[in-house]
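Table S2 (text version). Query chain:
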Amino acid sequence: MKKIKVLVCILLLISACGKTEVDIKTPPSPPKPIPVPAPHRPLIDAMYFLDSFHRRIDQYRLNPGDPSRPFAMIPDHVNTGENPTSLTIHPSHKWAYILNSKDHTIFSYTIDPIGGHLGHFQTTPCDFKDVATHLTMDLDGKILYAVHDLAAPAFYPYSINENGIPNYIGP
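Corresponding structure-token output:
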């Protein structure tokens, strides 16, 4: 009697589970790939250094042909305003921005996609009274921030238009 009750319970459980067959002939569809955005990469390998004393930017390019000098200076220094304190590069690698803290300006430069040479194309006067010390940009390259952090932190936002020109948008 006990064996029949157990067998009936097992049969009831199996029938309650529904269809237990697996179709082995049809393989499962592969998962769809998740699109990954291409990283922002420069077209050239260049480095830029601010030289506040000489009011200029020193430019260097990767020099793979000479292991003793892995970087070669790009001819012609690029002039800046008075006391350049910060440099930031747009995520598209089309433009670079320099904050000149003593004359309260932001210099905008194009970046040559072949040689990496910087070309000055815009000087934006800064309307803030404090001395800003740093520049930073949001990840999508739409807002450039001049930052004053000496006493009380303050942020001065600039929108970046389609031509790379910063425009102050207020506090």
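Notes on Table S2: DSSP finds one helix and twelve strands in the chain. Helices lie at 2-16.
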